[in-house]
Amino acid sequence: MANLLTLLTFLATFFGLNGASLNLRPRQFVNAVGFGDRFGSINTNSEESDHFKLLAADGDSLLVGARNAVYNLSLASLSVNHRIDWKPPAEHIEECIMKGKSKADCQNYIRVLARKSDGHALVCGTHAFSPKCREYAYNSQDGSVKNTRQFDGQGISPYDPRDNSTALYIPESNEIYTGTVTDFAGNDALIYRKSIGEGQAGRGNVRTQRDDVRVLDAPNFVASFTYKEHIYFWFREQAAEAVDNNEERVVYARVSRVCKNDRGGARPANERWTSFLKARLNCSLSSAAPFYFNELKAVSEPIAAGANDHTVYAVFSTPSSELQMSAVCAFSMKRIRDEFEYGSFKYQRTVQSLWLPYGRNEIPKPRPGTCVPDSTKLPEATISFVLRNPLMHKAIESIGPPLLVEGADRADLTQIAVLPRVDSVSDQRYDIVFLGTSDGRVLKVVEIAGNATVIQATSVFNKGTPIVNLLTTPTHLVIVSADEIASLAVQNCAQQSTCSRCVQLQDPHCAWDSNSHRCVHRDSWSGGHYIQNMVFGQSEQCPEGIVVNEVFGDDEVQSERIMTSRVGQYTAQMLLLAVLLAAVISGVVGVFIGFRFSRWLTASEAHRSASSTSGSDYDSFGRARLTRHDSLTTASKIDHAYIGQQPKASMDATSLVLSMNQSVHQPHHPMSISQHGSGINTPSRDKNAILTSINQNTLPRDYKVKKVYL
Ligand SMILES: *[C@@H]1O[C@H](CO)[C@@H](O)[C@H](O)[C@H]1NC(C)=O
Ligand SMILES: *[C@@H]1O[C@H](CO)[C@@H](O)[C@H](O)[C@H]1NC(C)=O
Ligand SMILES: *[C@@H]1O[C@H](CO)[C@@H](O)[C@H](O)[C@H]1NC(C)=O
Ligand SMILES: *[C@@H]1O[C@H](CO)[C@@H](O)[C@H](O)[C@H]1NC(C)=O
Fold it and tell me: Would you say the CB of residue 428 lies under 6 angstroms from ligand 2?
């Protein structure tokens, strides 16, 4: 078995190099470690991380939360404009240490910052595991900053600097929307809205109900933004509706939203959202059995895409393991809105039942989750429905297949920033996607007619330094790690010195200037004659003509090229091997599934008898929970044993290999990709492309294979 695994990994690696969107080879490598404008990392003590977090970009300045400080940096040079120091008092630190936290964690890590309409800055931090907020007034005469108010930051800032939380301040209503946790242990996760006004304590504050795994369960928030009349929250969480083969809950990617004008329901639901809905995000490689990237890691802002729609680009990964894979998918905001507005709701009648959609006539009116002028007047039926069933039945599918997939042999993708609508020489517009990795690099990616091209891979920090935030302006890219910030130009056109190599970058920022014979950035395009070919990456207009398989100068590319040519040589042989392997595996798997299925049957019988009395509690769950929260009793977290899913529902590599075997015999599998925004349809891929892509989709999944065979 160990040999089989090695062989599988070997094959996966090699097929991976030849892929359409898997493990694409960057056109250009840039080593920028130690270059560009830098901030931080001067006296880094490895035990005391700064936990930098990019909190806002405010005109020409960047606001960065750090340990016991907020930095206001100049966007142009990363020099410090201002700095606010805020250390927790010694007794707070002692108390925090007594509760078992490390001295390094018992500091004030600033996690939230917003500029209020009165010009004051709202700043919130972990404050030695006891979150606090302050308001600061800026005196433009002497440049000093004065603390004018301090209040409890519970539900606004997390307790732990590592917690993945999100906050969005809305100046018009002086309210803050957050996705975070409200307790020391980090168990009570919530989506919350709090009024920041003085003397407004408690008024208009609304939250998700606690201790209900159908609402939120151990979420990691990645972003929030306002879009039309809603606030959207993006996160990953343990899905109440899904268990894997070992009856463990699976993490799913989610998008959720609340209405800005939601005032909560009538008592006792007066502090509950009446509009909180959520849906699963589906970023997957399709074959007979889809291969899912379930763990949402980062999302972009909504990017304008045609009439009345916006695209959100998102980074996903498979569960963490040494064979983790990442992918980038794009989603239509219109599609998300439509699902929330017209889709059906998913529910489970009893703890033992399957999750099913509600029938049209079972959904109360007005429709649960709709924005209404006065939510406190909503009928009880609507409110209790939405509190119990916030999940939409259908998952939101991405726009076409993943834009890019990074295999297990590549660093994980961690962050994303999109520079929208960059003009090419021929006035076509392209969204440029920048991706941060777990090994301190940034990839610059552009989608051309449905295919991704990795224009450039830039090493920004030492290997092993994950990128935690990315921000792009039309000229600069700001890259944030826990202890260092860098600012680099968005392009490196000048690195290429011939026309064909310049054109080959397929970078909308770069074109060959046939007068000065240089690869130049768009800033210097004026008059003259510029050569660029975004679609084919080669041009007859180049003096050297069309150069196929251009060899780049970089060593890193060289080594990859050697491997690529080997793949070419052995491809047929390897395909044969893969098919043979699949046949062997399907034999083994058949036996295995039989075994699992019988185990599953036994297990579900056991659960059924154990939990047979919990059915009625569960049906009146929404109400029972409400009363409990209002009296502020902390109930222990109820963790339903969700069973009753077919073992097949969560796909693993073994079944994928099986389905690959089937697909090989279905050459007419349609796979047409429509590019968002432009309405261009690229032709279906041919049979060989499908075969290759299925192999690629299948084989790298051996982190599951590993689980199965070892
Ligand atoms: C997109 O990729 C496919 C598969 O590699 C290729 O056949 C097709 O020509 C590409 N399209 C463009 C416009 O490059
Ligand atoms: C950051 O500093 C700049 C330059 O002094 C100032 O204009 C800006 O208002 C500051 N931002 C905040 C949020 O304090
Ligand atoms: C926050 O997210 C990062 C990256 O996705 C992850 O490595 C980390 O464990 C998360 N933090 C917590 C407390 O779960
Ligand atoms: C996710 O998308 C894939 C590909 O479009 C599809 O085959 C699959 O059924 C979808 N899954 C869910 C849960 O909707």
Answer: no
Alpha-carbon distance of 189 to 203, in angstroms, equals 21
Among residues 319, 307, 314, 324, the alpha carbon closest in space to that of 397 is found at: 314
What is the pTM assigned to this prediction? 0.79
Look at the block and give the residue holding tokens 């993708």.
413
**Residue 624 pLDDT:** 32
Instruction: List, in sequence order, every beta strand (DSSP E) within 326-440.
Output: 326-332, 346-348, 355-357, 396-397, 404-406, 413-423, 429-437
Which of 500-514, 559-573, 599-613 shows the lowest mean pLDDT across its residues?
A: 559-573
pLDDT, greater one: 22 or 593: 22
Task: Name the residue at shortest CA distance from atom 4 of ligand 4.
Answer: 286
Buried b (16+ CB within 10 A) or exposed e, 171-195: eebbbbbbbbbbebebebbbbbbbb
Q: Which residues line ligand 1 (CB under 6 A)?
A: 20, 449, 451, 535, 689
Q: How many A from CA of 338 to the centre of ligand 4?
A: 17
Q: How far is 207 from 626, CA to CA, in rounded Å?
A: 11
How far CA 13 is from CA of 19, 131, 372, 559, in Å, comes to: 11, 46, 53, 14
Average pLDDT, the chain: 78
Domain boundary among 161, 196, 213: 161
Residue 293 lies in a domain: no
Using CA positions, which residue lies closest to atom 8 of ligand 2?
61
The number of domains in the chain is 2
Q: Look at residue 477 and tell me whether its pLDDT is greater than 80.
A: yes
Q: Nearest residue CA, atom 7 of ligand 2?
A: 61
- Note whether residue 31 is domain-resident: no
Residue 10: per-residue pLDDT: 40
CA gyration radius, the chain: 27
Q: Whose CA is nearest to atom 9 of ligand 3?
A: 162
131-140 long-range contacts (CB < 8 A, ≥24 apart) are 131/156, 131/157, 131/158, 131/159, 132/108, 132/157, 133/157, 134/86, 136/84, 138/82
Query: Can you tell me the mean pLDDT for 166-181?
Result: 96
Mean pLDDT in residue range 432-445: 97
In this structure, is residue 673 part of a structural domain? yes
Last residue of a domain, one of 141, 161, 181: 161
The answer to whether position 563 is within a domain reads: yes
pLDDT by residue (tens digit) across 142-156?
878 899 999 999 999
- Ligand 3 midpoint to CA 298 (Å): 11
Å from CA of 370 to ligand 4 middle? 26
Region 663-677: mean pLDDT is: 30
Residue-range definition of the domain harbouring residue 126? 52-161
Atom of ligand 1 nearest to the CA of 449: 13
